[in-house]
Amino acid sequence: MERYRNSSGNSGVSGYEIGNDYIRVKFTGNSKTYQYSYQGKAGKNHVDNMKSLARSGSGLNSYINSYVKFKYD
After folding, report:
1. In the chain, where are the structural domains located?
2. Contact between residue 27 and residue 72 where contact means Cβ atoms under 8 Å apart
3. Cβ count near 13 (within 10 Å)
C-alpha cells in the first residue's frame, strides 16, 4: 500500500493501492481497507477518477465522500 501524499494536510485517507480495475483505500484511524472496482458499484468512471486523485495526492477523501462513500465492494 502506498502512502497518500495528502497535499492539504487534512485528508482522512492514509494510503491506497491501485490495480488495473480497482483502487483500495485505507482511511486514517481505521484498520479496514476499502476496495472500489470497475465491476462493483463504484464503476469504471469513478475508479479512474479516484486513481488520478490518489496519484496527485489531493482531493481523494472529498471525492469519496461526495460520490462513492458506500459504493465499495
Report:
1. 2-68
2. no
3. 23
Type of residue found at 46: H
Distance CA 30, CA 47 (A): 21
Distance CA 46, CA 42 (A): 6
Contact 28, 49 (CB under 8 A): no
Q: Which of 52, 62, 70, 66 minimizes the C-alpha distance to 13?
A: 62
pLDDT in tens, the chain (73 residues): 999 998 777 899 999 999 999 999 999 999 999 999 999 999 999 999 999 999 999 999 999 999 999 999 9
Put simply, whether the predicted model's pTM sits higher than 0.85 gets the answer: yes
